[in-house]
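S.,

Sequence below, as promised.
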Amino acid sequence: MLLPEPIQIAASACLHELFPKWMSQALIDQRRTVRPQGNGSATIHIEPYRGVGTTGKFYGIVNQCCHIAQLEEAIGKYSPVLLNYMATPGSSRKMEVENLVIGWLKFMEANQSTKDISTLIAEALSNFSEILDKDCLTCRMVTALSGISLPDEITEIQLDDNLVLRKLTVGELTELGSHDIYSTSANDPLRYGVTSCIEKLVDLPLKFSSDSTPLPYEANNMHEEVIHLMLALHVLKPGRANAFLTSTFTDNSAIDLGGTTTSAPIQLHPHASFEINLPDIEELLSIYKSLKECKRSEVIIAAGRLLDSEHRLSPVDALLDSIIGLEVILNPSDIGELSFRVALNYAYLDSPSSRRKRYESLKSVQVTRNKVVHGGLNMSSTNSNLIVEHAEIGKSCLRDALKRFLVDPMLKDGPKLSAAFWLDRILPPDETHG
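The prediction came back faster than expected:
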């Protein structure tokens, strides 16, 4: 749906006059700009930028435009709904002609490159018309990740049809760490080893109407995507990875929603470190896909416990988390002696030659766990090294079990383990007698 021609003519006249003024406007806002220099170092500068103060001042310039009254009159006559309310999920905003013009100018600035002003105006008005036609605009949701480093040869990994894991550019890292000089809070991506992100495109519902009621809130799936990725990474191998913060960008939209919206940090750990190597990528994609498709709640819970155990500062907590995860995934559905059956089921996930070693390995971890729970062992004990050692073994056992339940065709789609899981592997049932 194209804007009526009288609106396009008036809008074009306004933008021809205002865009040069927009680009040459003195920037009165200032921010601390953090520029990464490599190897975790950065330089900090105080620089002018287009913030709330600068944009607010330009509203006065818009009001003085020779053609603004003509534009407002044309909109009022041919498409008055544009000067009512613009509703998005969870919010509603009264629109004025100045709001529309500012949105078009921001789009033109973001897409200017080497294009002439007439081409930019045509693209801005066309983009605006497409949004009106679809009743939605496309946003970029970007979650910066802490601790994750990708191989030098790889710039991005396609996790799903509309989701990529990629490196952040120097410009993105600069924006992420820069803040207005009057801001009371500041994120520090360098401190937390932020070099990568996951990104997806999201269609944000939007509607112009005389009704001031916001559209129903539709929770985006970015949080779910982040959780699945964090679980998949920690099932893949040992390490610590975090979600730093999520930002929503509308920089390729001719409708101004007020700039970038940014969430608070989701998880932070000062010692996050997770290196993804080239041989890891295929297995990561397999685990990620399996977790997204997994319908077994015990597998998801156990993967969450592994994630928790990797982020614990205390080996005691890491040990307890890993054993709880193993109990969740390996405890049979009927009532029985818990630790024995968990260890036995873990042993029988592999071939006969390794079962004794697997059983004894997990059993020793369970013994240490019981001593910790019942007060016979703590980090002050003379043999406290057992806690640290067995916490690592516990996480390794849980990671091994999760990979099998996510990848092994015999386990991934089956029911919860029964009491006969290990028995059937010692004494196979006689199928001829039922």
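The chain has two domains: 5-262, 294-433.

Coffee later?
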